[in-house]
Amino acid sequence: xxxxxxxxxxxxxxxxxxxxxxxxxxxxxxxxxxxxxxxxxxxxxxxxxxxxxxxxxxxxxxxxxxxxxxxxxxxxxxxxxxxxxxxxxxxxxxxxxxxxxxxxxxxxxxxxxxxxxxxxxxxxxxxxxxxxxxxxxxxxxxxxxxxxxxxxxxxxxxxxxxxxxxxxxxxxxxxxxxxxxxxxxxxxxxxxxxxxxxxxxxxxxxxxxxxxxxxxxxxxxxxxxxx
Length: 227
Fold this sequence. Notes:
alpha/beta; Rossmann fold; 2 domains; 5-stranded parallel beta sheet; 11 helices; transcription regulation; Tscrpt_reg_LuxR_C
């Protein structure tokens, strides 16, 4: 499986492999038809339920999975969790009609990389797929607003994990919270990409998180993203 760094350096001609997991056939047909017209994106498989989604993920090793949330049997939350256990570098983009907290937060906690509504335009979905392949999360504006309201809580007086971060690591964390890739962070801070990767690894370790989404959520929750 390609690492995130390898995908960031993809040749222009190399397609992003996408798996569709949705229990509505017409949704899958529409998505496949639209995405097949997009340069650099290849739909490698379609699944109508979670179990088939996991099976096809094992078969095709997609770069990105477009995931429905409400499906019979195994729902999108559990399917996301199981796919990411098998392929941690895969990026799951939730594509759903639901905005309620009971579905939004569990799938984010399960490791979903981006969250879009099915009212999104075709170009927005394609752009989100390309962004995910670059390591950038995309949240539909209503979703982002809900997350900000949830996680922007008053800071407690007890010691926080981010107090262990150096000044440079804090700079990197703020840019991670903005959804920027390692290359974009390197450009913004005028440092090498290897240095960025070193800082990101240290940030994950000090904050006790596993990925960029969790680090971004931590930054927003602690009120660090906009400081």
